[in-house]
Write a structure and sequence with these properties.
Elements: E1 6-12, H1 25-28, E2 30-34, E3 37-40, H2 41-49, H3 62-82, H4 87-90, H5 92-114, H6 123-132, E4 135-144, H7 147-158, H8 164-173, E5 179-183, H9 191-198, E6 208-215, E7 218-229, H10 235-265, E8 272-273, H11 275-294, H12 299-304, H13 319-322, E9 329-333, E10 336-339, H14 340-349, H15 364-388, H16 394-419, H17 428-445, E11 450-452, H18 454-459, E12 466-472, E13 496-497
Parallel strand pairs: 1-12, 11-13
Antiparallel strand pairs: 2-3, 2-11, 4-5, 4-7, 6-7, 8-9, 9-10
């Protein structure tokens, strides 16, 4: 079973571009050129390491590394063969998907440029965080969802009208629970919690912190029960800790800059929902959502709710309920009315992302409304990113090309196998008997256009540990396309060596 050997890593979307902030890095890391297309070393590593390679090139030896490279080159060659006369170019659904992919990458690049690149670390905070990073805090944590309750608790604690123990006992008596946690600097902490614990140089045992506001409708109350200190000993570990804290501090500082930027961008903008239409739409789609949740990994769930990479809310699936409101106004923003039909079209470019996908049925309406608000916010971010010209950067264009070429190559692969009468598109025999001969002809046909940086190729090491990388809180969570199952060819006897100055 795949679960036995696949490791799933969640990467927060805002951090994905941290390693590639240099605008001219693409030119220096080109591994293969094929006409006007190219494969960078980063692309080679991500395509071979962040998704599952087939069994014939899964290991970390040199032969499998050559098959991996040949497979990615073959994908580009099939995309070239497909040209611009494929269903991929004419299908509005696919074009909307690619546009959505591009704009998701654009927003991530926007975060890099307007926030990460602007960070100037506070030396004192950095020093304090580095010292406190040796601590593992033992805490009691109480989540608070209501703003009014959080405000009242803060006042009562300040005036000594109530204690943390009173709150804790009351919650437990009512059948609830209080989280008892150990928190380290690299625990998955909300930024406000990280700041409270690691930016303070005078935390006391027994101290009550908060309620700390996490977002619009979420707070947390913390009691420090104590901590243990584990000093970093070796020089290697000290350097690693220094790098880890620097990365964390950049992330936290960048998010503060980004939040301010988005707040200014959205200032004065308000979404006014047509309550009647919204309620009807919620009533139509909510049953489908919870039915999909009950049937794990079904086609419906993949299509609707971000569980797979083709996840989109398609109102055609609830057409009977939606038809009567399809032309009604769902909301108004900036004087522009959005009908249900317009909302449906936008979903093809930006599927909804729920802040709390494990919501109860009672919470669905509110979460649906918030997801729409987040979608509209992303439209304004995208527009600003276009206005700043970030869509013209090479890094973005290359990431878009990866998805577009993958779809064209997959279309060509299906056509080749269909014409050959193959019923099993993923069978090894089909690859060896049908695809291998076809691909090898392409190596010969395009040989004079293919340049390979062998020296750079030799420096790259692959892992034999299967990893599948997804991003959190984005419309399209899968980070890279599926690995192309196109060839088992293990020789680099075509093309020419790239000349590197």
């Amino acid at each position: 079973m795949i679960e036995k050997y696949v490791k799933i890593i969640l990467i927060y979307s805002g951090l994905l571009l941290l390693a590639c902030s240099s605008r001219d890095q693409t030119d220096r890391s080109v591994l293969v050129r094929i006409g006007d297309r190219y494969i960078t070393s980063d692309e080679f590593i991500s395509r071979s390491s962040y998704t599952i390679r087939p069994e014939w090139c899964r290991n970390d030896n040199y032969v499998h590394k050559k098959i991996t490279l040949n497979s990615l080159i073959a994908e580009k060659l099939l995309a070239l063969e497909a040209g611009n006369n494929t269903l991929i170019d004419d299908d509005p659904e696919i074009q909307a998907y690619l546009k959505g992919r591009k704009e998701q990458e654009l927003r991530q690049l926007y975060y890099q440029r307007v926030a990460v690149d602007k960070v100037n670390l506070n030396d004192q905070l950095f020093k304090t965080a580095l010292e406190n990073s040796e601590r593992t805090y033992q805490v009691d944590l109480i989540p608070i969802g209501d703003d009014r309750i959080a405000t009242q608790i803060a006042e009562d604690l300040h005036q000594n009208k109530i204690t943390f123990t009173d709150i804790k006992d009351g919650i437990i008596k009512a059948g609830g629970s209080v989280q008892e946690l150990e928190l380290k600097f690299d625990s998955p902490l909300e930024d406000p919690v990280y700041k409270a614990l690691f930016h303070s140089d005078n935390i006391q045992k027994g101290q009550i912190i908060g309620p700390i506001k996490l977002d619009e409708h979420s707070h947390t109350l913390i009691r420090i029960n104590g901590w243990t200190r584990r000093p970093v000993i070796t020089e290697k570990d000290k350097q690693q800790r220094l790098n880890d804290i620097k990365e964390k501090e950049i992330s936290v500082a960048a998010m503060d800059i980004y939040v301010d930027r988005i707040r200014n961008l959205m200032r004065g903008k308000k979404i006014d929902f047509n309550k009647e239409t919204l309620i009807k739409l919620v009533e139509a789609v909510a049953p489908v959502y919870f039915k999909a949740q009950e049937k794990s990994k079904t086609k419906m769930q993949k299509k609707f709710w971000q569980m797979g990479d083709d996840s989109q809310i398609n109102l055609d699936d609830v057409a009977d309920q939606v038809d009567e409101i399809i032309n009604q106004t769902l909301f108004v923003i900036d004087g522009q009315s959005w009908t249900v039909a317009q909302f449906e079209q936008e979903l093809k470019v930006h599927p909804l992302v729920f802040r709390n996908p494990k919501m109860s049925k009672r919470q669905f309406g509110e979460q649906f409304r918030l997801a729409i608000a987040d979608m509209i916010r992303d439209r304004y971010i995208t527009a600003d990113a276009y206005e700043q010209g970030y869509d013209r950067e090479k890094k973005l264009k290359q990431r878009y090309a990866v998805w577009a070429d993958n779809l064209k190559a997959e279309y060509m692969r299906q056509q080749i196998l269909k014409e050959a009468g193959s019923e099993n598109a993923f069978d090894l025999a089909a690859v060896q008997n049908i695809l291998d001969p076809f691909i090898q002809k392409l190596y010969i046909k395009y040989s004079d256009q293919i340049e390979i940086n062998i020296d750079l190729f030799e420096t790259i090491e692959l892992s034999d540990i299967d990893v599948f990388v997804v991003q959190e809180n984005v419309p399209f969570p899968v980070y890279v396309p599926n690995f192309p199952r196109l060839t088992t060819y293990n020789r680099l006897d075509y093309g020419k060596m790239m000349k590197v100055e």
